[in-house]
Each structure stands twice: as C-alpha cells, then as structure tokens.
Design goal:
Helix 4 runs antiparallel to helix 5. The chain is an alpha+beta fold. The strands form 2 sheets. Strands 1, 2, 3, 4, 5, 6, 7 and 12 form an 8-stranded mixed beta sheet that branches. The chain is built from 11 helices and 12 strands. The structure holds alpha-D-galactopyranose (GLA).
C-alpha cells in the first residue's frame, strides 16, 4: 500500500468518508549555503521526493480536528480557529496551530476541517520535516479558505509560525524550498530579495542523503546562539569599519579580513564561515551551470570544513559519516546539511556508484557507531501542491 493509499484509508476509518482534498509538501536537502539564510545570504536547496501528506474535508464549524498517523499512538489534536494557543504537549500540533494562526493574522478566512497527516519524511534528520508540515498545513487550509497566497508569502507565514510558536528562530530556506521547489532543479535563493534562480545539477551525479540517526539534543539552542553571534558580529563590524551594515551579507571578505583580528575569536569565526559560504554558493552555481560536478563536490567539502572549524556545527557522527563517504568510489563531495549538530549529510555521488556507495556507507557507519543509518538517494521534486 502506498503512503497515499494508507492516508486515504486512515481518513475513511476515522471519519467514515473520503477526503475532499489531499495536500503534499516535500522535505528539502540543502546542497550548499549553510547558516547563510538568516544572514540575508544565499542558499542552494532542492525539495526532495519525501513528503508530508494531509488529507482533509471541511467542517461546518471552526474546529480543526487532526490526527498524526506517523507518530507513536497516532496522537490527535483539536482546536478552534477562534482561539489558537500553543499546544501544551505536542510539538507537531504547534506547527499546525501556528500556521493556522499566521494565515488568519494575514487575513485569511479559514474553515474548520477534519484532517489526517502521514509522512514519508524521516523526522529529526535535518530534512525539514517541520517546514514540510507547516507548508502542507498552509496548502490544505488554503484549499478550503481564501485568499490563496503565492509561494513566497506562504513560506514567510510558515517561517513566522515556526519562529513564534516553536521558538526556533529559523531562516526562510526550508519553507521556501518546500513551497517553491522544482523537479530536477536546485534553487539558488537570494534570502534577502526572496527571489530564486533554478539550476540543473551537473549530469551523471545523484544526491544521496545519509542520516546519522543521531538527533540534536537541545533543539534550537545552539541554533539561536549562532544567530545571536552573527548579529553581534554585524554590530561590531559596523563599528570597526564605520559602515552601517544590515547583515553579514553586506560585508565584503576583504573588509572583513582587514579587521578580523579585532573581533572576539568566536564572532570572527562565525562571520568568516558566513562570508566564505556565500562565496561558495556563487561558485557552486557557476560550477552547476558549466556542468562541473567535480568542482561542485569540492566546494561541498570546503563547506564542511568551514562548518566544522569556524561554525562549530558538526558532530562526531557527522564527521564519521562524511569521512566514510569520501572514502567510497564515486563520491565527489560530502557535507552536513541543515542546521548541523546531528541529522544528515548530503553527498554528491556518480550515478554508476550509487548502489555500492549506499551499501558500503551504511555498513561501515553501523559497524563503527553501532547505529543503523538511513541512506537514500533523493530526487529534486516540485514544491507543495494539492494532489486531489
Ligand atoms: C535550519 C534552518 C534554516 C537554515 C539551516 C542552516 O535548517 O531551519 O533556516 O538556517 O538550518 O542553513
């Protein structure tokens, strides 16, 4: 039974009818450009062929009744659109509630609904299952309400839901990719202008994700610390260079190098990662355009070094996964993807070597760590849509 069939049968079991609409929203893998989005910089994600699905039918009252079939015990949440507060216990429910709240704050007229969630996206792997749930929720709520916002606005509302309801001050990348992803293309997103350019990946290579299965412990705390450090770096660099910078995006590498020694060590390192990472995104975009997979992979490897040394966002398991991946034939580049401190790596692998890569990486990682990883090829896929 496919996940879609399972979803429909669960809906029928719970509500005794077929759903009126089904929405889907994909997870994402960021190829390069990490921790740059909240610095108004550049990222290069693909939306992937793993997704969150929500089946629903409208109700005649203002209640949202929703069951999460992929969470142990299939927890259920009910709330009124007239009084949306954070759920005291269920984190997943806050993504749903937060999005409904943001849509209404943006003057959407919504209807209550009966709904069921299912997912083919691993959670906690750094593949943005939370952004996928947010964007999927927005897509299904909009199917029964109005107006229908464009993808960029939807991504912004979903980001706000995550920032406000869940308290992780995430940037725009994940929601943007979930809303606007394209089949067979990566998006080069300008996170200040919120515009993108779609590029094809170099020919003959496949993107492989390897989840370390080691989840981050304190969700958001390291992340929020990094965000604050970047803001402090902007303030200090503005003083030192006597220019009113808005974000690290505005600082040139040569200006930075001239005063870097005057910054506290941690702030200097964080800023250097962001500035060099923005340059790597530009270089990777050019490599993709001229079909240079080897250079693309090299830039991914450099990004990993910078994330480890300057941004301190790696972990022992991520380092192990990256080191083992790079030993395999046909691996052109390997780095952590998403926030880091756990979660998954993204690997660029020659097509012909993908099966042996996956098998060897999974086996070697498990024998070193005792943890069975999840290793899988992914395909660049379209952003959120209604499927029915
Ligand atoms: C998380 C956030 C994104 C982005 C990445 C790091 O995935 O949700 O906004 O900041 O970390 O690049």
């Amino acid at each position: 039974m496919s996940k879609l069939e399972f979803l429909v049968s669960e809906f029928q079991r719970l509500y005794g009818a077929r759903p009126e609409h089904i929405a889907r929203a994909p997870g994402r893998v960021n190829l390069i450009g990490e921790h740059t989005d909240y610095n108004d910089g550049f990222v290069m994600p693909i939306a992937i062929d793993r997704e969150v699905l929500i089946a629903a039918r409208p109700r005649h009252d203002r209640l949202v009744c929703i069951t999460a079939t992929d969470i142990a015990g299939s927890p259920h949440d009910e709330f009124s659109l007239d009084a949306i507060k954070p759920h005291p216990q269920y984190r997943w429910a806050n993504y749903v509630r937060g999005v409904a709240d943001q849509l209404q704050q943006a003057r959407s007229v919504l209807r209550g609904m009966d709904a069921v969630i299912a997912s083919t996206l691993p959670t906690g792997a750094g593949l943005s299952s939370s952004a996928a749930l947010e964007v999927c929720t927005a897509t299904i709520l909009q199917a029964f309400g109005e107006p229908r916002f464009d993808g960029v606005t939807l991504a912004q509302l979903c980001q706000r839901a995550e920032n406000d309801f869940v308290g992780v001050k995430s940037g725009i990348m994940d929601q943007y990719a979930a809303a606007l992803g394209q089949a067979d293309k990566a998006l080069i997103v300008d996170c200040r202008a919120l515009t993108y350019q779609a590029v094809s990946l170099p020919r003959g290579v496949t993107v492989v994700v390897a989840d370390t299965r080691k989840k981050r412990q304190l969700v958001g705390s390291d992340y929020n610390t990094r965000r604050a450090e970047c803001q402090d770096a902007v303030a200090l660099l503005s003083q030192l260079l006597d220019k009113p910078f808005q974000a690290l995006r505005d600082v040139s590498l040569s200006d930075f190098n001239g005063v870097a020694a005057q910054l506290p060590e941690n702030l200097g390192k964080r800023a250097r990662h962001v500035l060099t990472e923005n340059e790597r995104v530009e270089q990777a975009a050019r490599a993709a355009q001229r079909d240079d997979a080897v250079e693309f992979g090299r830039l991914m490897n450099e990004s990993q070094t910078s994330l480890r040394e300057d941004y301190a966002a790696s972990s022992p398991e991520l380092e192990m996964m990256v080191a083992l991946a790079r030993q395999q034939t046909g691996c052109l580049g390997s780095r952590l993807t998403g926030a880091g401190w756990g979660g998954a790596t993204v690997n660029l692998v020659r097509e012909a070597n993908v099966p042996s890569f996956i098998q060897a990486l999974a086996q070697q990682y498990q024998s070193r760590t005792g943890i069975a990883p999840w290793v899988s090829p992914v395909r660049a896929s379209p952003g959120a849509t209604l499927v029915k």
